[in-house]
Amino acid sequence: MVDLTTTYLGLSLRSPIVASASPITDDPDVVRRLEAAGAGAVVLPSLFEEEILHEESELNRALEAGSEHFAEALDYFPSIDELPHAGDRYVERLARIKAVTSLPVIASLNATSPGGWTDHARRLQDAGADALELNLYHLAADPLLAADDVEDRDLEIIAAVREEIDIPLAVKLSPYYSAMAGFAQDVVRAGADGLVLFNRFYQPDLDLETLTVVPRVELSSPSELRLPLRWIAILSPHLAGRASLAATSGVASGTDVVKALLVGADVAMTTSALLRHGPEHVAVLESELLAWLTEREYDSVAQLRGSANHSTSGDPAAFERAGYVRTLHSWAAPHDLTPSSPSS
């Protein structure tokens, strides 16, 4: 029997297949189904600091409505010390999910201010999270902000959160840092126990009728896995024994999980495939992974891991610029685009 166990962020997982943050991991019943299907761990949807701030702002606005006209309006409502907000509800859901599963439950935090990161990180730890995924989701849109400024700010956030919690800390990064290999090393030095590659930015669209910006959510496709595969292959030899690596975006089949493990990932995280096919799709991924390993006589995922990364691959240049050149030359024009011979 092939051993599927793996270690991620120091946590022992029965499988390298992890249900990453999505609306379905917020439901205790669905988490039970994910566990039954064979998931190794679950990542809860992110707690957004903006949600908390928005709720507080809306409450204050409602309570103060009319006070500019009638001073006594502020006396209509009893004094309230504190009302539950998005952070409180998140902690309650975390507790409910922890009560129904033996899987490691990883909380996810997406905050905007230094104080927000640390305060909420501590609350999630105290609520029982087995680990925390810190989601650095922002665009460097300020033209006066240099790359060093962006990176220094993120490293300060990571270090501050590390100071506040004792549970394992993963950092989910975007692929847009100017020197990814060096920055990844800095993230680990700042206190990260693992990297999740990559954050998938949602791109806005335009409504041509109203000329307004509108959100468009599109589920990922397997081709999007190529970017994390490249960078995990490059980073895994340098981070081995120091930090875990998780591949996310485009994991839709058991062979996608195989690819993630081959380049050195400890786990493969999937969201879109579960949204398309339901939580039981985890069992499909596991079955395909087992079939691939069994056919090739692997004893464990540990035996497979990293056997095609930047240092162990027979062609490490394929992960760098040489791969770009070969890819371009590998394209063959369809027959109907090939120029025809001039008639004699």
Question: What would you note in describing this structure?
Answer:
- With 344 residues, the protein is an alpha/beta fold.
- It has a single domain, classed as Aldolase class I (TIM Barrel), CATH 3.20.20.
- Helices cover 40% and strands 16% of the residues.
- The chain has helices at 28-37, 49-63, 86-100, 114-126, 147-164, 180-189, 226-239, 254-262, 272-277, 281-295, 301-304, 321-330; strands at 6-8, 11-13, 17-19, 41-48, 105-110, 131-135, 169-173, 194-197, 204-207, 212-215, 244-248, 267-270.
- It has an eight-stranded parallel beta barrel with strand order 3-4-5-6-7-8-11-12, surrounded by eight helices. Strands 1-2 form a two-stranded antiparallel sheet.
- Helix 4 runs parallel beside helix 5 (147-164) and helix 6 crosses helix 7.
- It is globular, with a radius of gyration of 23 Å.
